[in-house]
Write a structure and sequence with these properties.
With 530 residues, this protein is of the alpha+beta class. The protein has eight helices and 25 strands. It has three domains: 183 residues, FAD/NAD(P)-binding domain (3-Layer(bba) Sandwich), CATH 3.50.50; 161 residues, 2-Layer Sandwich (D-Amino Acid Oxidase, Chain A, domain 2); 87 residues, Rieske Iron-sulfur Protein (3-layer Sandwich), CATH 2.102.10.10.
């Protein structure tokens, strides 16, 4: 489903994409007042997704003076575009985590994600949050062509972490899936926007302050400028999916990927409520093994929604696999109907962006080089639990409480054991600067159809151009204001996306996602001048 919010000037405020998720479509948007004066606070939290709101909630609950700012509305970023799985079955798998962090690190990772699920359940119960929280089983099954031994090895690695998991000879609820699976008991799911909206109300009731449509810039040890007003704070928490306070350091440790979701109607009660994941494509060109993930959500009296995600690719580079962004949904639908033949009409489709850390786990804690600025980033496809962990760890650090997972998630860690993959990904990122020398999408503006965008170029000059339905041209420099990479047109979400570090811009050139902190530079052109 598509909703165009550009007509009222709020493009990017409601959501970070033009395809609207079920979570955003099924609740009223939550907007608070906009900051209009200088302020002072104990803790300034930047970002109104699950990481920022969890941090603000835990600190407000502990009696700290907290202020949260969000440049859109509550859950308007990537938290509102999730599939809302709550699981300790991490997408990079425990046999890989054990190789990278050792047996003890793998155990701590499992323990922390189980604790995150428990904390969400505790908050739901304590604060009486109506968000369809539900405990259920999860099932990991083999990607086609993957050997059974992979599951055997994964189960052994899981058992060494202390997670309760078991081998099943078939996949419950998936008669079309052949072969065995690993069953994870007591996983969970919820309605993310209902959870975050009610959590925001709890924060306000605890005396916290929340300002929406309030962008933070000039972040330093003293606070930040928020809509141009000075906010002084003793502690600053940057929970913006990818850090907007840091120019380079953290952006060489993680990389942006896009992931796709379809929600199909199925007869109510025709499938068990469960979570399903395949092991992923180990032969993918990307550093990740893109996998499929599925869950159910209550929808109407007659239907549930079968929500399936996958078909991931590096941001801005979908065409390298010959499948542009807008065709990823059909690939996902084709997969879904093989494994779940009862999947019917597609009610929703949307995409999201995840940050993939080079060594699989989020970066949570003090920003390198700072002693009062904290970051929460690197969701790695497990954004709900990583975001909750971010709030748990950072709130403990601010209060001086010892936390057993601080070192594991430290942003200062170096990915030494994944050095080969790290160098490969950095080289791929650097190669995007060659777009100045490669052929542009179009060489003549007349080639551009109304309602479409492209990268227009002559020589080394590159412009991001969008043609409105009435034929009017919007043109901008195609150079990302973060570190100068050439942006790419995303025909699915109708945005200009940076393939280097994941900054994204609307078709009007306005900033949607960092790490850039400013819009694309506008250029006045018309067809006769070029």
């Amino acid at each position: 489903m598509k909703k165009d919010f550009s007509s009222d000037g709020s493009s990017g405020d409601f959501s970070s994409g033009e395809n609207i998720s079920y979570w955003l479509d099924s609740v009223r948007p939550m907007e608070t007042s906009t900051l209009e004066q200088d302020m002072e606070t104990d803790v300034l939290v930047i970002g109104g997704g699950i990481a920022g709101l969890t941090t603000a909630y835990l600190l407000a609950k502990a009696g700290r003076i907290v202020m949260l700012v969000e440049d859109g509305l509550i859950a308007s970023g990537e938290s509102g575009r999730t599939t809302a799985h709550l699981t300790c079955a991490l997408d990079d798998h425990y046999q890989q985590l054990e190789k990278t962090f050792g047996a003890e690190g793998s155990r701590l990772a499992a323990q922390s994600h189980m604790a995150a699920i428990d904390r969400i359940e505790e908050i739901v119960r304590l604060e009486h949050i109506a968000c369809n929280f539900e405990r259920l089983n999860g099932y990991l099954f083999l990607y086609p062509g993957e050997k059974k031994q992979y599951l055997v090895d994964e189960l052994e690695a899981i058992k060494r972490t202390g997670i309760l998991a078991q081998w099943l000879d078939e996949v419950p609820g998936m008669p079309a899936a052949t072969g065995a699976c690993i069953a994870y008991p007591r996983q969970a799911q919820f309605h993310i926007t209902r959870y975050l909206h009610e959590l925001a109300h709890v924060i306000l009731n605890l005396g916290g302050r929340i300002f929406t449509k309030t962008r933070a810039t000039d972040i330093d040890k003293n606070g930040a400028k928020c809509n141009g007003y000075a906010v002084h704070a003793k502690h600053i928490v940057v929970a913006t999916n990818t850090p907007v306070n840091d120019l380079v350091t953290m952006h060489t440790k993680q990389f942006p990927y896009r992931t796709y979701v379809v929600a199909a109607k199925v007869p109510k009660g025709s499938l068990p409520h469960a979570l399903w994941w395949d092991t992923g494509d180990m032969d993918s060109r990307w550093i990740t093994a893109p996998y499929h993930y599925v869950r159910l959500q209550s929808f109407t009296e007659e239907h549930d929604l079968l929500i399936a995600g996958g078909e991931d690719h590096k941001t801005g580079r979908a065409d390298e696999e010959g499948i542009p962004e807008e065709r990823r949904y059909q690939a996902l639908i084709n997969w879904l109907k093989v494994y779940f033949p009862k999947a019917g009409e597609i009610a929703y489709n949307w995409s999201g962006q995840v940050m993939e850390p080079i060594d699989h786990l989020a970066f949570i804690g003090l920003n390198p080089g700072n002693d009062n600025i904290y970051i929460i980033t690197g969701d790695s496809g497990n954004g709900m639990t990583h975001g909750t962990l971010g709030g748990m760890i950072v709130s403990d650090l601010i209060q001086g409480i010892e936390n057993p997972w601080t070192e594991l998630y430290s942003p200062k860690r170096k990915p030494l054991k994944d050095l080969g993959t790290y160098l490969s990904e950095v080289m791929n990122m650097a190669a995007q600067y060659a777009d100045f020398f490669t052929e542009a999408d179009i060489k003549n503006l007349e080639e551009l159809a109304p309602g479409n965008g492209a990268i227009f170029g002559k020589g080394m000059k590159r412009m991001a151009v969008y043609k409105e339905e009435n034929g009017r041209l919007n043109a901008f420099s195609a150079v990302c204001p973060h570190l100068g990479c050439v942006v790419q047109w995303n025909a699915d979400e109708r945005s200009f996306d940076c393939p280097c570090h994941g900054s994204r811009f609307t078709k009007e050139g306005q900033l949607i996602n960092g790490p850039a902190i400013s819009p694309l530079k506008k250029i006045d052109i018309n067809a006769r001048q070029l």
